[in-house]
Design brief:
The protein has 37 helices and 8 strands. Helix 1 packs antiparallel against helix 4, helix 9 crosses helix 26 and helix 16 crosses helix 18. It comes from Shewanella septentrionalis.
Length: 889
């Protein structure tokens, strides 16, 4: 596919343009080789017509549509594949540009930690206070497998190899022969990609998803973490003269992959057991690789008295210790292989790496010996990297969270109390439930009879709790309760853990998801902390999860954002009053409609006091790859998180003025009314949504292991937040990310509050971040494309609703431009604006083809089903649009 200079960005991005052009040219050559010149010419013609159409050329648009609708069946798949892969290569070029030596200054900002330290230590923050905060930072990034990662793992690995080639090409000292070899490798990789099926043939299992998460660590984060910490240490040492502790771990990683069973019947206790074993196996395998390398490095003989005594004066004391660790790691891998294969081998735990200290203690002894003997330079090499990996990942690699719906726990007790003749737990009021739960939590006798035979659903919950009881606390993170709303929801889980033999105090975390749950969150936690038994259990720590996805789906982004902010403020106050340290767990998605957006801005826009050195955040779906898929990108992301949490803790944003609060409250009330007036109250909305988007067809795409709906027979309310967002991003209306916001902002303007809004946007990080996110989704929205979907797919008697929605979109864009005093959206972020422009000529044809294919598949009958070409091409258009939109779910 030929890409001309005029097709791309302005001259300031010459390096990016060059890579996009080169990769596009190789892709075009690959297509020409296998499909001929005429096919490539048709692809190129459609691309140029799409570009002209976007400039308002109606004749070009009509010609493009004629070509698309006339594509023969055998060309549908390669055509969709061509545009899909160009978008993936464009994404890759952008990712690489941010870490390239030739990165433009408007894209590659200075290191955020270095900038922050400069501002802090310029008299604003005491050096000792800053160092203490940095040493105790607790940032937990929770990787989740929500089904928005379109690309297959095998393709992701090939994309990473392309980045390696682009990196090598930047070496000015390469010989002509070396350049030819890199060029050949690029052509090979792009040919491999072209001939690889982009759509999974089968839906991934939860174990597949967990293995995908581990691959991100193995291929990127394992290398990025010590690189980041070395960079951080150098920055701190340069500013303060002090070094960071060798076991510092400001950022750690947890996972929901294989532990999130909320609405996913495929995540069972057996699956969770396998994932835990695989996590340990991956850690043992990676540590073994490191130890093998370290055996080669630590050949020195001189040692301190402790190491000499430990190794009985071995002539190679360091290697003596390392060879023992090497064998124990090999034995550990063999043991875990047997477990993964379904066996339960007898084993002497002392022969394995069974707990973290089995690795940490001997490695720290080696480190101390080297530094005692004047070999600090050697100690601070690979050995220090291993110690810091151990501090970050432990021997379990990822701490696995468990998540389950509150009703599943109460159903266990309801079935049990009925069996015991005590009545039905689910029919008791909250006071009765709490009294029963606290009585049983303090009772030493077992509650569950040994001869009780529970139903399958109840048995599965109990089996999960027994599994938790068998594993060490460091293998597990939090037990998250979805749809929690009352103290009994938390106490019920604690009772089930007690009754199944869990001896370690696992964090049990209520997740407040809907608007009403968020509004009631502080009252719930207040009631919990008023319970003496529970206060004792928490040991002064309370974690609360804030749901972004379902609250936005319930109330719209503006009302949900204010409810989240207000809930956090109240929770901070409640926990401070109770003398308890609060950790807020933010359940953010990749898209704006699910709380997504730049993490740095998001953290700094939280209420003052809500971060306090501790935060948990989900990293979901395709955003894991965009932020952590390449080691240098991962280092940048780790720096952004660290600087944001440090700044939010030591230089928190100001308390919002009362007039800002009052204005935001009015905006929230009006926005939720406008949002629900469409989504809930408009009788034609569900029918329009299902006709105008590929929502039904998305359910057939084998993206993730979890069903798209909580209930098969449910409507919008039962649809998960991810396909809800995903479907609207496909027809480019982006509705969940803006509906209700523009109407509320316009109402504020009509009340004469424009000046107040502009003050808020200028001075209040929370509000300015909301406006910035709105600008981004407005810029990505394409009302004309959404109208085309409507024309082709929606019955005419429903077109009135589409017109209403597009009017609402236009209203929102106008009021935001007026508020920001800008002539165009994202005027202050030219890189993001140009990034959107770059993709449009390649996404647009996929959208137009998608509508044609949707129309064909919806006309299919039992006698004449859509051809396999049509069905696969439709899946490819969905994948391509998702790649172009990037933060789709």
């Amino acid at each position: 596919m030929v890409v001309t200079k005029a097709d791309n960005m302005t001259d300031m991005y010459a390096s990016l343009r060059s890579n996009v052009s080169m990769l596009g040219q190789i892709l075009g050559d690959t297509m020409r080789t296998h499909l001929g010149d005429s096919f490539l010419e048709k692809v190129e013609q459609i691309r140029k017509l799409a570009k002209d159409s976007r400039r308002g050329d109606q004749a070009a648009r009509e010609q493009m549509l004629e070509l698309l609708t006339a594509l023969p069946d055998e060309e549908l798949v390669p055509f969709a594949k061509a545009f899909n892969q160009f978008l993936n290569l464009a994404n890759l070029s952008e990712q690489f540009h941010t870490i390239s030596r030739n990165c433009d200054e408007l894209v590659c900002v200075p290191d955020p930690v270095e900038q922050l330290l400069g501002r802090m230590l310029n008299g604003r923050v005491d050096q000792t206070k800053m160092l203490d905060c940095l040493k105790t930072l607790d940032i937990d990034l929770v990787l989740t497998a929500h089904p928005t990662e379109i690309s297959r793992r095998t393709l992701i690995q090939k994309y990473a190899a392309i980045v390696d080639c682009l990196t090598e090409q930047e070496n000015d000292q390469l010989s002509d022969r070396e350049r030819q070899q890199i060029s050949l490798r690029l052509r090979q990789l792009i040919a491999q990609i072209w001939h690889t099926n982009e759509i999974r043939r089968e839906r991934p299992t939860p174990v597949d998803e967990a293995r995908w998460g581990l691959s991100t660590i193995e291929e990127s984060l394992w290398h990025a973490v010590p690189d980041f910490l070395r960079q951080l240490n150098d920055q701190v040492q340069q500013r303060t003269g002090q070094q960071l502790p060798i076991d510092i771990a400001p950022v750690r990683f947890s996972s929901w992959m294989g532990g999130d069973r909320d609405g996913n019947p495929f995540v069972t206790a057996k699956v969770t057991q396998e994932v835990l074993d695989r996590n340990r196996h991956a850690a043992a395998r990676l540590f073994l690789k490191d130890i093998v390398l370290l055996v080669g490095e630590l050949s020195m003989e001189e040692a301190n008295d402790e190491l000499k005594a430990y190794t009985n004066n071995s002539c190679e004391p360091y290697r003596h210790v390392l060879r023992s660790l090497r064998q124990r790691l090999r034995d550990t891998i063999d043991y875990l292989n047997a477990r993964i294969e379904g066996h339960n081998p007898e084993v002497d735990k002392s022969s394995l790496i069974w707990q973290e200290s089995d690795l940490k203690t001997p490695l720290e002894m080696l480190y101390k010996s080297l530094t005692d003997c004047g070999m600090r330079l050697i100690a601070n090499g690979l050995l220090l990297d291993i110690l810091r990996r151990l501090a970050c990942f432990g021997i379990h690699m990822l701490r696995l969270d468990i998540r389950q719906d509150a009703s599943r726990h109460s159903d266990v007790l309801a079935e049990l109390t009925r069996y015991l003749g005590m009545g039905d737990f689910n029919h008791w009021d909250e006071t009765e439930k709490q009294a029963f739960l606290l009585r049983e939590l303090s009772n030493r006798r077992p509650l569950i009879p040994s001869n009780w035979q529970p139903s399958a659903d109840v048995a599965e919950v109990l089996n999960t709790c027994r599994l938790i009881a068998k594993h060490p606390a460091k293998a597990l993170g939090s037990y998250v309760i979805s749809m929690a709303g009352k103290p009994s929801d938390v106490l019920t889980v604690l009772l089930l853990l007690k009754e199944t033999g869990c001896s370690h105090p696992m964090r049990v975390v209520p997740l407040f998801e809907t608007l009403s749950d968020l509004n009631n969150a502080a009252a719930c936690i207040t009631d919990l902390l008023d319970i003496d038994w529970y206060r004792g259990y928490t040991k002064g720590m309370q974690e609360v999860m804030i749901g972004y996805s379902d609250s936005a789906k319930d109330a719209g982004v503006m009302a949900a954002a204010w409810a989240q902010y207000h809930a956090q403020e109240q929770l901070v106050a409640v926990c401070k009053q109770a003398g308890v340290k609060l950790t807020l767990f933010h359940g953010r998605g990749g898209s704006i409609g699910r709380g997504g957006g730049p993490a740095h801005k998001a953290i700094l826009s939280q209420p003052p006091g809500s971060v306090d050195g501790r935060i948990r955040v989900t990293e979901q779906g395709e955003m894991i790859r965009f932020k952590f898929g390449l080691p240098k990108l991962a280092v940048q992301s780790l720096a952004l998180y660290t600087s944001a949490v440090l700044e939010a803790t030591l230089l928190p944003p100001p308390e919002p003025k009362q007039e800002w609060r009052d204005c935001m409250q009015r905006i929230a009330e009006e926005s939720v009314g406008a949002y629900r007036g469409i989504v809930r109250d408009e009788p034609d909305f569900v029918a329009y949504f299902r006709a105008a988007t590929p929502e039904v067809e998305l359910g057939k795409l084998p993206l993730g292991s979890r069903p798209a709906k909580r209930r098969v027979d449910g409507g919008i309310e039962s649809l998960r937040a991810i396909p809800w967002i995903f479907a609207w991003s496909q027809n480019r209306l982006m509705l969940p990310a803006w509906l209700g916001a523009g109407e509320a902002l316009q109402a504020a303007c009509e009340r004469g509050e424009m000046g107040l809004l502009q003050d808020m946007e200028r001075e209040w990080p929370f509000f300015s971040t909301r406006i910035s996110m709105l600008e981004m989704v407005y810029a990505k929205a394409e009302p004309n494309l959404a109208r085309y979907y409507e024309t082709c797919l929606v019955p005419k008697d429903l077109h009135h609703l589409g017109e209403t929605l597009r009017q609402r979109l236009d209203l929102g864009i106008k009021v935001v431009l007026e508020l920001t005093k800008s002539d165009s959206l994202m005027a202050h972020t030219p890189w993001n604006r140009e990034s959107v422009k770059l993709r449009n000529p390649y996404i647009d044809p996929l959208n137009f083809l998608q509508t044609e294919l949707l129309a064909r598949t919806r006309k299919e009958t039992t006698e004449t089903p859509a051809s396999e070409h049509v069905q696969l091409a439709l899946m490819l258009t969905i994948a391509g649009v998702a790649a172009g939109m990037r933060n789709t779910g």
